[in-house]
Each structure stands twice: as structure tokens, then as C-alpha cells.
Amino acid sequence: MILGEIGYRDRFLLTAIGDSVHVAARLQDLTKDFGCQLMVSHIVAATAGIDMAAFPEREVRVRGREAPLAVRIVGGMEELVA
To answer: What is the pLDDT of residue 55?
Structure first.
């Protein structure tokens, strides 16, 4: 990820670009499709040391990536829990 200011003279914006920003934006969009509050990838949960085993697991397709991404669904997915 690259984080920096973009702009000219006194008009600057802080912005972030990169694969992690892309994936985060796509997961945010997918929360609407799944009707949930949050989607957490296994990679993020493991890096943060958070046990997400209590939440339903799904594989989702992320636009711009070939392989599906394993995620945990938080909130609003009671109908998918077996």
C-alpha cells in the first residue's frame, strides 16, 4: 500500500492506493450483497491475532483477483449459519 498526499498548492488530499485498499473496498461493497455489517479476510484476522471461528466462513470472488478470498461474515448472516 502507498499512502500519500495528492494535490497542488493548498489543496491536498490524503489518499491510499494498492492491493490491500482495493480488496478492502471490494469487501465493503460485498457487505451489501450479503446483508452483513462486516467481512474480515482470514489474512487480516490472522495478522491481527483475532479468533473469528465463531463467525460463518465463506469464499467470495473479489473483482480484479483470480482466486476466491476466504472471509468471515460478521452480523446479519444468521440465515446462513447451519
So the answer is: 92
C-alpha neighbours within 13 Å on the C-beta side of residue 3: 2
- pLDDT of 78 reads 54
Cell, residue 54: 465463531
pTM of the predicted structure, to 2 decimals? 0.74
Rounded CA gap, 41 and 37, in Å? 14
| Angstrom distance (rounded) from CA 57 to CA 35 | 14
As a whole number, mean pLDDT of residues 60-74 equals: 92
What is the CB neighbour count within 10 angstroms for residue 55? 19
The answer to whether the CB of 2 falls within 8 A of the CB of 17 is yes
Rounded to the nearest integer, the mean pLDDT of the chain is 88
C-alpha cell at 72: 468471515
Is 36 in a helix, a strand, or coil? coil
Q: Are strands 38-41 and 69-74 parallel, antiparallel or unpaired?
A: antiparallel
